[in-house]
Amino acid sequence: MVTTRETDAYRRDAEANGKLLTPKEREALLKPYLPPLPNSKASPRPRKSHSLREFLREQLHVFVFTLIHTIFSLYVRARQIYHAVFNRVLSILYYHHRTPELIKQDVRGMRRLPEHLSVILEFKEGERNGAGLGALLDEAAEISAWCACVGIPVLSVYEKTGVLKRCIPRAHRKISSKLLAYLGRRGPSLQIRAPNLPLYLNSDSREGEVATSSDVSDHLSVIFLSSEDGRSTLVDLTITLAEMSQRNKLSPDDVSINLIDAEIEDSGMGEPELLIIFGPNVELQGYPPWQVRLTEIFHVQDNVGVGYQIFLRALHSYAKTQMRFGR
Questions:
Q1: I need a labelling partner for 48 at 20 to 30 A (CA). Which of 29, 39, 239, 257 fits?
Q2: What is the pLDDT along the chain (327 residues), one digit of tens a residue?
Q3: Cα-based angle 297, 301, 306 (whole degrees, multiple of 5)
Q4: Per residue in 142-158, is it b (16+ CB within 10 Å) or e — as a string?
């Protein structure tokens, strides 16, 4: 135990900035209270050698781990090969040859078709000279032509970054030329729209005319969506309903799912019956959540890229689906 004399001597030396005691005196003062020095001459404790049983156990674990990974890798590779061969066979057997009659024949036996079809496409930014945007527009144009051939009046194309919404005139020209290649002059009128943007519509007198309303019959409506549309639309709708409620123009009891559906429909974002994902996994990539709450989602495992056979399989799957709506 530290004595009072030693404590006072240490404090006086500390107050004098170490001038009262020499280094040896300070060391002698603290030495009784320091832990003993380790014995450097003591030989280190020998490590315990692994026994044969532990070695065999480790090797068994490594073998089982390698076996599981090998089996899983073979399964994934075999599944990818099967899907690639199956999709290739379907693409040969059901190739449309840009002939509307063949496309209509492929869907003739279906009980129903969606009135509003939606697809998720991916923009590849890494490609040079605008090849990524060109490929994206070509995919959107192909799907638009397929919808026009089978009689689907509304197509919404979702692309996460919103690049399609920034080039609507170019997309209109691309889709119009694709419809002309498939259907000739018998093709439907085309209109392209996006939330919070004016309607882009062609007419008989001047193709590419910009309009704000449409009363054209027998037309194809293409809607461009991006990730910002889902959140901004719901936020704006919530603010509007809250302000109307504060001004006593709307009762909180009047806010219902039907009202929200109607308001979102007026904003240009209808609810599709069928959503096709052309990627290998089910990734919505920020798709507006309210619009897909009752939507049938279709995708083909290990598929990469837009293909007519995927489009046709999605329509067949939708025709066989029973929509119970929670009942």
A1: 39
A2: 667 777 777 788 777 777 777 888 877 877 777 777 766 555 555 555 558 888 899 999 999 999 999 999 999 999 999 988 988 898 888 888 888 899 999 898 888 999 999 999 998 876 666 688 899 999 999 999 999 999 999 999 999 988 998 899 999 999 999 999 998 888 888 999 888 787 777 644 334 444 333 333 478 999 999 888 877 777 777 888 888 888 888 887 788 878 877 777 776 677 899 999 998 888 888 888 877 888 899 988 888 889 999 999 999 999 988 776 655
A3: 75
A4: bbbbbbbbbebbbbbbb
